[in-house]
Design brief:
With 370 residues, the protein is α/β, with parallel strands linked by helices. The chain has eleven helices and eleven strands. The strands form three sheets. A six-stranded parallel sheet has the order 1-4-3-2-5-6, with helices on both faces. The chain has a three-stranded antiparallel sheet with strand order 9-10-11, covered by helices on one side. A two-stranded antiparallel ribbon has the order 7-8. The radius of gyration is 25 Å and the shape is globular. It starts with 16 loop residues before the first strand and ends in a 7-residue tail after the last strand.
């Protein structure tokens, strides 16, 4: 039985059980958790439509008789020096309403002393090399703080399945690796990014953007979409027909005459680089026999980087932190011969606000069209 059905919320209040201590949560969870049908959505509050999509996904997964917990905890361990811990928005009342409307049963909003009863922990979960790349390089120690609090909250909430947004792609990757490497008995599910009508990925930090800054910030999603569209156009274009074989030469002909008319045909993982300003659709169809092929991963990066370079001249400018095309399993860089699923990720600063975004791409195998 879901505690949502026995909640004693006041008239007009959110129909969800609020637990402000781990002890309260234990009392609420123990008699109502259904084995195999208990889910958690971990947040730092300031909930928006992206969080609502996670809660709805959790509710759909466990069903009406399952139990969905939303944690609201601003984790001090994942904020570095000079970051926005103090100004991070705290909106618990609004969070309760959104959580209830999306289908949560319990909101666990514990104080720091409940999560870290001995003060700042001496023993932490370390993200290793995965946590030192990209976001980890820009925010040293960030993923150690993330994994430490996720591990603690998994122990405290004891879910069968945990839901995380794909917008934080590297975070999702390191959490999945921790769960696998340390044998946590939980299934991790990624939920697609929710975007505003103009393409900007939903984020609690969007509220910090002034109107002109928000306009500049749209370059993040436009860059990602440019990379995605370039890949789609190149992958869908017809493969150039192979050249006719060179005619046989007389036995006494010079060696140069035998190969002069030969032409290499690029395979499906390479395309010809378009001229400056050429549309993405011309990437393959404008190829001439014998032209040097440009690998698809390189074209995707170039298309995205061109949009970001233009935004660097805006007022206010976009200050790029990184643009990366990576393997989602370990966040290593995708090489020119990469095939399969990849993540095109970007991080940049607009004014005082740092934003991240990504899209997932599928690179075809050599000689295979999607």
């Amino acid at each position: 039985m879901s505690p949502r059905r026995w909640s004693e919320a006041g008239a007009g209040g959110p129909d969800v059980e609020l637990c402000t201590s781990v002890r309260d949560y234990d009392e609420a969870l123990t008699p109502h958790a259904t084995p195999g049908r208990t889910a958690v959505v971990m947040t730092m509050g300031a909930l928006h439509a992206g969080h609502a999509s996670l809660i709805r996904a959790a509710r759909a997964r466990v069903g009406d008789e399952g139990l969905v917990t939303v944690t609201v905890f601003v984790n001090p361990l994942q904020f570095g020096a000079g970051e926005d811990l103090d100004r991070y928005p705290r909106t618990l009342e609004a969070d309760l309403e959104l959580a209830a409307e999306a289908g949560a049963d319990i909101v666990l909003a514990p104080p720091v002393r409940d999560v870290y009863p001995g003060g700042e922990p001496e023993v932490r979960v370390t993200a290793g090399p995965m946590g030192e790349r990209y976001e980890g390089a820009s925010r040293p120690g960030h993923f150690d703080g993330v994994l430490t609090v996720v591990a603690k909250l998994l122990h405290l909430t004891r879910p069968d399945v945990a839901f995380f947004g794909e917008k934080d792609a590297q975070q999702l990757a390191v959490i999945r690796r921790m769960v696998t490497d340390l044998n946590f008995p939980v299934r991790v599910v990624g939920v697609p990014t929710v975007r505003e009508a103009d393409g900007l990925a939903l984020s609690s930090r969007n509220r910090y953007l002034a109107p002109a800054e928000r306009t500049t910030a749209l370059a993040l999603s436009r860059a990602l979409f440019a990379g995605r569209d370039t890949l789609a156009a190149a992958s869908a274009a017809p493969t150039p027909a192979p050249a006719d074989p060179a005619p046989s030469a007389p036995a006494d002909a010079p060696a140069a005459d035998i190969t002069a008319s030969g032409a290499a045909t690029p395979d499906a993982s390479t395309v010809d680089a378009p001229a400056a300003g050429a549309p993405a659709s011309s990437v393959l169809t404008d190829a001439a026999p014998g032209a040097t092929g440009t690998p698809l991963p390189r074209l995707v990066r170039e298309a995205a980087r061109a949009v970001l370079a233009e935004a660097a001249d805006h007022d206010p400018p976009l200050v790029l932190d990184y643009l990366a095309l990576v393997d989602p399993a370990d966040f290593t860089e995708a090489g020119d011969d990469f095939t399969g699923e990849a993540v095109l990720a970007v991080a940049a600063r607009v004014g005082a606000t740092r934003l991240i975004d990504n899209v997932r791409l599928e690179f075809p195998q050599r000689g295979v069209r999607p």
